[in-house]
Each structure stands twice: as structure tokens, then as C-alpha cells.
Amino acid sequence: MRGKLALLVGGFVLAGLSALAQASAQAPADANGGWRPVTDDDIAVLRQDVQASKTDVITRSMGFTDEQSKAFWPVYREYANEQQKIGDQRVSLIKDYAANYDTIDDVKAKSYIARAFKFDDDMLRLRRSYEAKFEKAIGAKQTAKFYQVDNRLNLLVNVQLANLLPVIK
Q: Are 115 and 93 in contact (CB under 8 A)?
């Protein structure tokens, strides 16, 4: 049952991520039916929804004791905050990609590659830097389990973004 619930909540994460990616790539309609640029407030609201869903998936997947929960969540909040800062790179890249999709040349493509690698490197560096903090809070086995859950959530994000963003033409 827990696995099915986590998958259901994971669907909400995907829906929120889908909305985030779409908001990053497309301008939402204004009150008059015209299009307006995506604002940072739009992205912030979507991120809050996604983070709430991720928190629910982690809670259901991890099965923390009260003691583990008290130790884990403060560390996780720091980690998630750092993830969001790094995620700003990805949002910026998606916005730039969407704005320039029809005119991407070799120079721009090379820039996108470098920015994507930097994002990946920064995320890996963050994950590594928090390993000891999580292990101190919840032990090695639970840390390994958390990183499995976190990795799966990140894979869902990547698959969703891959489905939403067209390949360079």
C-alpha cells in the first residue's frame, strides 16, 4: 500500500513538475486572454507545490521514527533549499532554451551543454556534501534509502522535462 501511495503522490510531483516546465517554456494567459511573461512568482508557487509533494513522498517512503524525523527534516530543509538554488540554473537554462529555440546555433548549443553539465556537477556535489549530515541524523542505511528516493524523484523530474522540451532542430 505504501508503494502505491508513493506512486500516487509521485504523480502529483510529476504534475507539478510538468507545470513548472511548461511555465518555464510558455507564457501563461493574462486576464484578457493575451500572453504574459512567466514571472519568478509563478515559478515560486509551482516549486512550493512540488516541494510539498516531494516531502510527502519522502515521508511515506522513509517510515521515520519520531527521533529520525526530528533529526532528518531540518537537514533536509537545508538540502532542499540548496537544491532549489542550484535548480535556478536549470530554470534559467529552460527559459533561455525556450526563448531561443528557433535560432539555436553552435555557439548557443555549446553554452547549453556547459550549463547543463554545471547543473549536473553542482547537484552531485550537493548530494555528496550532505551525505555525512544525513548519516549523522538518520544512520547510513536510512541515508542510502533516502538517496534512493531522492534519486528516483530526480529521475522523474528529468523524464518529465525530457518529455516537455523539444530536441534541438
A: yes
Q: Give per-residue burial for 49-68: e unless 16+ CB within 10 Å, then b.
A: bbbebbbbbbebbbebeeee
Residue 69 near residue 142, CB atoms below 8 Å: no
In the chain, what are the domain boundaries? 2-164
Judge contact between 62 and 142, C-beta under 8 A: yes
Q: Is 37 in contact with 109 (CB distance < 8 Å)?
A: no
Q: 143 and 134 in contact (C-beta within 8 Å)?
A: yes
Judge whether residue 7 has pLDDT over 90. no
**Spatial contact of 21 and 161, defined as CB atoms under 8 Å apart:** yes
CA atoms within 13 A on the CB side of 2: 8
pLDDT score, position 45: 73
Count of CB atoms within 10 A of residue 72's CB?
23
Residue 38: its pLDDT value, please? 55
